[in-house]
Amino acid sequence: LIIKGSSVGLQEVLQEHKMNLRRRCEHVTEGSDEAGGGILLNRIYTELYITEGHSGEADVQHEVMHLETASKKSLHETPIRCQDIFKALPEQQRVIRVVLTNSVAGIGKTFSVLKFTLDWAEGGENQDVSVVVLLPFRELNLIRDEQHSLLMLLHVFHPTLQKVTTEQLAVCKLLFIFDGLDESRLSLDFTNRKVVSDVSQKSSLDVLLTNLMEGNLLSSALVWITSHPAAANQIPPTHVDRLTEVRSFADGQKEEYFRRRFSDKEPSSTVISNMKTSRNLHILCRLPLFCWITAAVLEHMLTTEQKGELPKTLTDMFSHFLLVQTQRKKNMYHEGPETSPQELMEADREVLLKLGRLAFEQLQKGNIMFYQEDLEQCGLDVTEIFRRECVTFQKPVYSFVHLSIQEFLAAVYMFHCYTNRNTEVLKKFLGEERNDLYFVMQKSLRSRNGHLDLFVRFLHGLCLESNQRLLGGLLGRTENRPGMVQRVINNLKKMNNYVSPDRSINIFHCLMEMKDLSVHQEIQEFLQSENRSEKNLSEIHCSALSHCEVVASALKSNPSHLEHLDLRNNYPEDSSVEHLYLRLCGMIK
């Protein structure tokens, strides 16, 4: 690439920058695996389905619920390769300068960023760009209280560019990539911000970023931001030229993943079959990262003494995943004689509960990235279940491999506090003299975006003795009083009377985590009954009906035996009817 008016020295600097980015991006790690420096990105990268626009569901849903909604939709949009996100479609007559890419966690936004950068650094596509500047929010957080100019920011995060001057920057076409807005601890204010137009002018990071996005700084520079949908609301739509969304794995991609993951046909077929028998697991496997978790658990169960019934619920799966991680830690460090996973869990009890405390406290704050001070507050030094990022400032940044892992450990910690009568934690969380699971569920239902939905699902799943046995002494001394599980189930069913349909579906999921199939069976009996018009359906029945495979099968059959669904005697609210209609429409697309 030759830049008009540039010196040979600048060309050498930019070439060195490309080589540095290539080394940085060509190897990646999957999940929490870090040994051996990772694997080649080009070897494992699967092209993601990126579309223009945004469905909007995940703005007000827990991400697991968003996956569930997405699994019912047919795709008709034109896909956009990540290398083409700054190229307008043939019918679009506009310049695309700022791109915002949304998706739920674990789909592969960061891998897309790395793939784009690697292709550029290897001399492939987008060679009209002179400089690609990677600025992950997790690293920007480390200097959030400092003052920098944009030029200083380039020098600090990319030392190979330290010789680049203000004048030289003016002849370069730059692309700034801000990965992980949802991980940001900056406060982006587009209304009361200071205007900065000089790349050498010092300011706070949030002011620099907003001015760059608005075009006050380097008006010709391209900007790419990746985010979870809820966090993306920080950026006004007027400042975004193209909004894109990364779609999750389709069924064929899930199966392809497991077949590539296992060299033998038999284990891959077993894993695929098990995934299909559990609707929740089948939905979550739309995430590549959850496919990795599922593969790790089932591979361990199929190749060790830990055989038996394969996991069917989320709590089952994550309990086994915790066992796999503790076993992996022992094998990695050759710790002591052969012991059972449950004994290993007991040995690591203290550190796992500290992890649970960290997960619980940060979940309430909405944080998914942690720093050394966060760990120290919980008495932690380092842990294998974290993903550790080596960043520019040689300060470690930590995260759980996925938000769902954080939610599971938070639930384990909360359940431990309950069984060990740690009322202080319970009172602080609930804000009053209440320490029952019923009130935790109530609190989660009041959340508009459902950020506690998976957390309470896990809490209910941990009530089962089978999961308590799996986790050994981690939960403390549990009391399996006769009728306790049934009382929790009855309380869940009573909650429906005052909960909106879009929130009540999580009650149904909590029942499934407790392996209570009564609502599902009642729906099946309702569909098979000859006097359906005389039966009343509750809110939870409407929610279950909209997720019921029996209904989907009946609607898709040709000819369909389900010709009428008469709700005249049920007096459902408008919101319930709309909820049921949208769900059923999704089933038959």
TrEMBL record:
The lineage of its organism: Eukaryota, Metazoa, Chordata, Craniata, Vertebrata. Residues 16-87 form the FISNA domain. It is found in: Cytoplasm. Pfam families: FISNA, NACHT, NLRC4_HD2, WHD_NOD2. This is FISNA domain-containing protein. One of its GO terms (cellular component) is cytoplasm. It comes from Amphiprion ocellaris. One of its GO terms (molecular function) is ATP binding. The keyword Secreted does not apply. The keyword rRNA processing does not apply. Keywords: ATP-binding, Cytoplasm, Leucine-rich repeat, Nucleotide-binding, Repeat.
